[in-house]
UniProtKB/TrEMBL annotation:
<dbReference type="Pfam" id="PF13302">
    <property type="entry name" value="Acetyltransf_3"/>
</dbReference>
<dbReference type="GO" id="GO:0016747">
    <property type="term" value="F:acyltransferase activity, transferring groups other than amino-acyl groups"/>
</dbReference>
<keyword id="KW-0808">Transferase</keyword>
<protein>
    <submittedName>
        <fullName>RimJ/RimL family protein N-acetyltransferase</fullName>
    </submittedName>
</protein>
<dbReference type="InterPro" id="IPR000182">
    <property type="entry name" value="GNAT_dom"/>
</dbReference>
<feature type="domain" description="N-acetyltransferase">
    <location>
        <begin position="19"/>
        <end position="173"/>
    </location>
</feature>
<dbReference type="InterPro" id="IPR051531">
    <property type="entry name" value="N-acetyltransferase"/>
</dbReference>
<dbReference type="InterPro" id="IPR016181">
    <property type="entry name" value="Acyl_CoA_acyltransferase"/>
</dbReference>
């Protein structure tokens, strides 16, 4: 995966009803460590990383690249949204922008992921108009599959990789409003 390419970055912080989407800052580092070391977050993502290793190796400002949004609730990071251009992927996805999302378990079940991803996709539609977005998730990850469907992704294909059944979805380019 690579970053998005020539987009204006960072954008102004994006405010939704309850959340702020913004570029990563030094104060987010502990939450990035919580995200990457959480067994619950990584059940379908290949497993968590050891916390002590993350403490040693994570940069001072993790996740600071075009397309990586920190999602903030009441002043604290609760998740990350990743929009990256896929260089190694299924043939149908290579070259397209791929959406990923990870939220801390205490933030699940409140609709924050839907709210934040909708805002990130709206930003994407204005930054790179006319581009589709792909999304891959394990079929066993039912909450992620549900979220993808709510966001307008439809199935392109199912495949087996990384020792699990996977789902590849596509969100077609949105039509510019007249
Ligand atoms: C995938 C993941 C982001 C989904 O999080 P989530 O909190 O379940 O997602 P949603 O934003 O869709 O919210 C879920 C529920 O909150 C409920 N909710 C509660 N209050 C709400 C509100 N005010 N507004 C909207 N929904 C609300 C909704 O009922 C919704 O469920 P429904 O769609 O069945 O009605 C989360 O499970 C996660 O981070 N998993 C680990 C990482 C991962 O596997 N990522 C996938 C890799 S691509």
């Amino acid at each position: 995966m690579t970053d998005l390419g020539p987009v204006p970055w960072p954008p102004e912080p994006i405010r939704t009803g309850r959340l702020v989407l913004r570029e990563s800052e030094p104060r987010d580092r502990p939450a990035f460590i919580d995200l990457a070391s959480s067994p619950d977050v990584h059940t379908y993502l290949g497993g968590p990383q050891p916390r002590d290793e993350l403490e040693r190796t994570l940069p001072a400002v993790p996740g600071q690249w075009p397309g990586s949004f920190v999602v903030e609730l009441d002043g604290a990071m609760i998740g990350q949204i990743l929009l990256r251009r896929a260089t190694e992927h299924r043939p149908a996805a290579v070259g397209k922008v791929d959406l990923g999302y990870l939220f801390l378990p205490q933030a699940w079940g409140f609709g924050y992921a839907t709210e934040a991803c909708t805002a990130a996709l709206n930003w994407f539609d204005s930054a790179l108009p006319g581009e589709p977005v792909v999304l891959a998730t394990q079929t066993a990850n039912t909450t992620s599959m549900h979220l993808a469907t709510k966001l307008g992704f439809t199935e392109l294909e199912r495949f087996h990789a990384w020792n699990a059944d996977q789902w590849l979805g596509l969100r077609p380019p949105t039509k510019p409003s007249a």
